[in-house]
Write a structure and sequence with these properties.
The structure holds two protein chains of two kinds. Chain A is an alpha+beta fold. Chain A has two domains: about 5-85, no CATH class; about 95-210, Butyryl-CoA Dehydrogenase, subunit A, domain 3 (Up-down Bundle). Chain A has seven helices and eight strands. Chain A has helices at about 5-15, 15-25, 45, 95-125, 135-155, 165-185, 195-210, and strands at about 30, 40, 50-55, 55-60, 65-70, 80-85, 125-130, 130. In chain A, the strands form three sheets. Chain A has a three-stranded mixed sheet, with no helix packed on it. The two termini of chain A are about 30 Å apart. By secondary structure, chain B is α+β, with helices and mostly antiparallel strands. Chain B folds into three domains: about 5-120, Butyryl-Coa Dehydrogenase, subunit A, domain 1 (Orthogonal Bundle), CATH 1.10.540; about 125-235, Butyryl-CoA Dehydrogenase, subunit A, domain 2; about 240-380, Up-down Bundle (Butyryl-CoA Dehydrogenase, subunit A, domain 3), CATH 1.20.140.10. Helices cover about 50% and strands about 10% of the residues of chain B. Chain B contains twelve helices and seven strands. Chain B has a four-stranded antiparallel sheet with strand order 2-3-7-6, with no helix packed on it. Chain B has a three-stranded mixed sheet with strand order 1-4-5. The longest helix of chain B is centred in the C-terminal third of the chain and has 33 residues, at about 240-275. Chain B is globular, with a radius of gyration of 20 Å. Classes of the chains: A alpha+beta, B alpha+beta. The interface of A and B includes residues 37, 179, 211 and 217 of A. The structure holds flavin-adenine dinucleotide. Flavin-adenine dinucleotide sits at the interface of chains B and A. Chain B: It comes from Actinoplanes awajinensis subsp. mycoplanecinus. Chain B: Belongs to the acyl-CoA dehydrogenase family. Chain B: It holds the Pfam family Acyl-CoA_dh_M.
Chain lengths: ~220, ~375
């Protein structure tokens, strides 16, 4: 699965299904942990893993070193958040880290695109006086800004994936785009079972693997 | 620069002290909104439960640093709100007391209504709500559909639905806005007892600010005695739109201060948890601190204007929009000091990020505030002289 496939899958099928496929299509049954050992996956994906990404390489997993951090709620049910605390083993093959970040960006962008669709539909149904909210100029402008961000991100994720540093910036750009859309959803985007919950989960995924943009290890 | 006088400076120091305790219960309240019932002795909660009750009804109020505070001015409210929200914005919104309804009671209630309302608040910890938003009408509240009709026996009946109402499910009393006739002047506020037949409120789980326990309220023929119509002694204009505008103007700086408190909390959190910052990090942290200070000045100025001219809430709109955005930005930026997984390993930071998202919608969204700021600009009322 490449970033563009992840994007299309997420837009059509949502977060959990796409994350499951992303994990299933990795070459081995691994915990794909980020630089601080964190990883968020659907619970079933944690079973029968035998390897782990640690210190940038693929190592044998020590199950006792998997610490549970909690759950990330999504409308399809919770994901499990874990941190790998094991010592790095003998250097194995390099983990496909950049590819994972690119697919993750594709997934998050697909969710963001679905959010845009939902926002347009929502604003088309709500009115101010006799006019749909969708036709207010401030709203049109904000939606235009959001779709421009999304297309800019999509172009960069299509074909050869950008280097890891650029991917970090793209993830940040996705977060900001989602926030623009959330503001347009009003309080309906703030409920635990609404579209805003997916955005929260999407932000948590980015944080688990990447952290804030300005972070220097 | 605006500086606080000794009285408000004292308020600030005390409230900052109370906020420390609130941090200790913040995550528990986030998980379980009923935590507030176990925190009624917290000095911030006690203070909030007595705010917006005028001196006449509470003459023997406990002094704070030798001063009396009743929360009747916007300036006083913003100073307390920033500090308490920096402790826990959830608890600020979860506390018993007059809260949003208090300003409207002060503006519109007659003597008997005040006796009833303040009497309830003083008798026991009492939660109140303020219900304007409806499932289909948020920003465009003027189009509300909730109806207030005569019951044929001298009383009234409320029918309709309200949504996203803070404290709706735990309140004993509240204010409901409803339409008693068509047209823009047809909005009226009534006092409601939540024990009345036909009143139902259910919590709506939210992403953040969970202490506020937003609720969906159903009003299925709730009886309202004619004596509970607020502003019944005033003309329809003054009790409808006029009062709404005045009330929101007065409240807006306080909501801005809640957002500011959330931003500051995240900023303080970085300093507390990361004792040694690199040079670049320190510069970035200091720059954010200056932005927070700037927005605080804007809020103080907005509060001072609203206190002097309650009809002028334009700068308050600018401040509110600015502060809500600041809260989102500063809380997200705080992640940059901790590295991957911070939202999973630093639950307080995670909570601040979620809380920050909610202030955008309280008391008018960013777009509505911008439109109001624009009105202030073209009408020459935004304070450019
Ligand atoms: C934490 C929290 C606490 C709350 N507490 C209360 C409470 O106690 N009592 C209460 O009554 N309500 C409360 N609310 C509801 C709040 O007042 C509404 O969410 C708010 O008024 C916006 O309404 P809406 O959510 O329906 O958004 P909408 O009005 O549907 O707005 C959707 C989008 O359209 C934009 N928009 C709307 N009109 C225009 C326009 N004319 N031009 C350009 N853009 C426009 C908005 O900015 C927004 O981006 C609370 C909400 C939250 C999140």
């Amino acid at each position: 699965m490449n970033a563009d496939q992840a994007r299309r899958a997420a837009r059509a099928h949502g977060l959990t299904a796409t994350l499951t496929t992303m994990h299933d299509t990795l070459p081995e049954r691994v915990l794909p942990c980020g630089p601080s050992g964190c990883c968020v996956l659907p619970e079933p994906a944690l079973h029968d893993v035998i390897g782990v990404w640690t210190a940038g390489t693929v190592a044998v997993l020590d199950p006792a070193a998997v610490e549970r951090l909690g759950r990330v709620e999504t409308p399809d049910g919770p994901l499990a958040a874990v941190r790998y605390r094991g010592a790095p083993g003998p250097a194995g093959v390099p983990a496909p880290w950049s590819d994972w970040l690119a697919r993750l960006a594709g997934l998050r962008l697909g969710l963001s695109e679905a959010l845009l669709d939902a926002t347009v539909a929502h604003l088309g149904d709500r009115r101010v006086g006799d006019t749909p909210l969708l036709l207010q100029q401030l709203i049109k402008g904000a939606l235009a800004d959001a779709v421009t961000e999304q297309i800019e991100i999509k172009i960069q994720l299509t074909g050869t994936p950008p280097p890891a540093e650029s991917l970090v910036a793209l993830h940040r750009q996705i977060t900001m785009t989602d926030r623009m859309l959330l503001r347009l959803l009003g309080a309906s985007g703030f409920t635990a079972d609404g579209p805003g919950a997916v955005v929260n989960a999407s932000e948590l995924l980015a944080d688990a693997w990447i952290g804030g943009e300005g972070w220097v290890p | 620069m605006i500086e606080l006088d000794d009285r408000l400076g004292t308020a600030r120091v005390h409230a900052r002290d109370w906020a420390r305790d609130l941090r200790g219960t913040a995550l528990e309240l986030d998980r379980d909104p009923d935590t507030v019932y176990r925190c009624l002795d917290n000095p911030a909660v006690r203070h909030l439960s007595r705010m917006l009750i005028p001196e006449r009804w509470l003459p023997d109020r406990t002094l704070i640093g030798g001063y009396r505070f009743d929360g009747m001015t916007a300036m006083e409210r913003v100073v307390f709100a920033e500090e308490i929200a920096a402790g826990d914005a959830g608890m600020l919104l979860a506390s018993p007391g007059a809260s949003l309804s208090g300003v409207l009671i002060d503006l519109l209630a007659d003597q008997e209504q005040k006796e009833w309302f303040y009497g309830r608040l003083l008798a026991a910890p009492t939660w109140t709500f303020f219900a304007l938003t409806e499932p289909d009408h948020g920003s465009d509240a003027g189009a509300m559909g909730t109806a207030l009709d005569p019951d044929g026996e001298g009383g009234l009946l409320l029918r309709g639905a309200k949504r996203y109402i803070g404290n709706g499910a735990r309140a004993q009393v509240g204010v409901v806005f409803a339409r008693d006739r068509p047209g823009p002047l047809g909005a009226t506020a009534v006092l409601v007892d939540t024990g009345a037949p036909g009143f139902k409120a259910e919590p709506i789980p939210t992403i953040g600010l969970r202490g506020a326990q937003l609720s969906a309220i159903t009003l299925d023929g709730v009886p309202v005695p004619a004596a509970r119509v607020l502003g019944r002694h005033l003309s329809p204009t003054r009790r409808g739109v006029w009062s709404g505008v005045q009330m929101f103007n007065r409240l807006r700086p306080g909501v801005a201060a809640i957002a500011l408190g959330i931003a500051r909390s995240a900023h303080d959190y970085v300093a507390e948890q990361r004792s040694s910052l690199s040079k670049a990090e320190r510069l970035r942290w200091e720059r954010t601190g200056r932005r927070i200070d700037g927005v605080r000045q804007l809020i103080w100025q907005a509060a001072a204007i609203v206190d002097a001219q309650p009809a002028n809430g334009h700068l308050a709109s600018a401040a509110k929009a600015r502060a809500a955005r600041l809260a989102e930005e500063v809380t997200l930026e705080a992640l940059e000091y901790f590295g991957p997984g911070a939202r999973l390993t630093q639950p307080m930071l995670d909570k601040l990020i979620r809380d920050a998202r909610g202030v955008e919608f309280m008391e008018g969204t960013g777009n509505i505030q911008r439109l109001n700021t624009f009105q202030g600009l073209v009408q020459g009322k935004i304070g450019r002289d």
